[in-house]
Structure formats: C-alpha cells, structure tokens
Amino acid sequence: MKDNPEFSQSAMAQSATEASTYLRTLSNPARLLLLCQLVEGEKRVGELEEALGLGQAYVSQQLARLRAEDLVRARKEGRIVYYSVADKRVLTLVQVLYDLFCSQPKTDD
C-alpha cells in the first residue's frame, strides 16, 4: 500500500465501518456463492437454489440479508422473483476474490 499513491489512511478510516459491514455480509459462504451466481446475470430464486443445492428457505433468508445491505435487488414478475446485483462493487470484489482464491495455486508465503 505504501507504493500506491492513491491509498489514503484517512479515507480508509472514514470508510472502515461501511467496509467492515460489507465484508461481514460476504463472510457467509452461501451469500458469497449467491453473489457469484448473480454476477453472471439476473436469476430466479429457484435457479439459485438448484445451482447451489440449498433449500428455498435458506436461500430466501440469505437473499433477504443481501437485499437489506443493498447488494442485490429483487424484481417480481407475477409470483416469480428475480434477483440481480444492485451494487456494482460486488462485481469487482467477486473478481478479486476469484483471482486470489480460485485462479492461483496457494503458496506458503
């Protein structure tokens, strides 16, 4: 960070609470996987259940938490509810997490 002239300790101090809340929301594996599904585009609750192998009640509970934090939005069409990413920072963060944990072999450093 010391080599990054755009990094500001005071800006981070002002945003620390928001960032912590954001990361706490993503700390649940099911919520993180739901967001991973939604970065690909809008999906029905049933599609999310099937893709993750989770029950409807649990998926709905986790989606409610993501909605409460304004990370996803819901759109109703009749009785079907579609979810999509509401906060574009999710796209960047999911990509960074993928790059850090999925696309590189683990090192002992």
Structural description of this entry:
- By secondary structure, the chain is an alpha+beta fold.
- The protein has a single domain, classed as Arc Repressor Mutant, subunit A.
- 57% of the residues lie in helices and 13% in strands.
- It is built from five helices and three strands.
- Strands 1-3-2 form a three-stranded antiparallel β-sheet.
- β2 and β3 form a beta hairpin.
- The chain is globular, with a radius of gyration of 16 Å.
- It starts with 8 loop residues before the first helix and ends in an 8-residue tail after the last helix.
- 11% of the residues are buried.
- It comes from Boseongicola aestuarii.
- This is Biofilm growth-associated repressor.
- Keywords: DNA-binding, Transcription, Transcription regulation.
